[in-house]
């Protein structure tokens, strides 16, 4: 399977001020951007925040190319959302919604581009520990995120490969030629992942002994 881009940037080694920023603060920035997307009502304010997040991304040294790739990956979806919102609610509202989504994408990319995956997962475990008293398993939660980060690029790559193969055979407009192979590949990948987790004792929840 070829390598393919993902919605957020991969980790880039560096020693920038963004790399050295505490993980909790970067988490807080991402959460703040997500919250702001529901509160901001002026597209100009959203655009200003977007410019700031792009500046932070470039300050990290991740590069313009990675930034553009992160934006390009969501461009088709944003185009559909923008056109629909423009039709329903008008241009300013459509612009605000689209830019707010971009703010969240770039904020997440700043986090992932400046934080090693293992540090990111360790941070998730630490943040989830207070929920242990409610029955949550922080380690299992982090494992779920790790599997997701690995699976989504694989599925995106599978779709891209199948699409290229279908185009070479003149079947790019045949939904069956696109969906069925991707579905089969995804199911096979899920089974392999499940078997690997089960082999390590991670695939199933621990059984609780019955009280006599």
TrEMBL record:
Q: Where are the transmembrane segments?
A: 23-41, 47-64, 71-88, 94-113
This entry carries the following GO cellular component terms, namely: plasma membrane
Q: Does the keyword Nucleus apply?
A: no
Q: Which Pfam families match?
A: CbiQ
Bilayer topology reads: Multi-pass membrane protein
Under InterPro entries, the record lists:
ABC/ECF_trnsptr_transmembrane, ECF_transporter_component
Where in or outside the cell it occurs: the entry states: Membrane
Which of UniProt's keywords are assigned here? Cell membrane, Membrane, Transmembrane, Transmembrane helix
Q: Which PANTHER family match?
A: SLL0384 PROTEIN
Name of the protein this chain belongs to: Energy-coupling factor transporter transmembrane protein EcfT
Organism field: Paenarthrobacter nitroguajacolicus
Q: What is the lineage of its organism?
A: Bacteria, Bacillati, Actinomycetota, Actinomycetes, Micrococcales
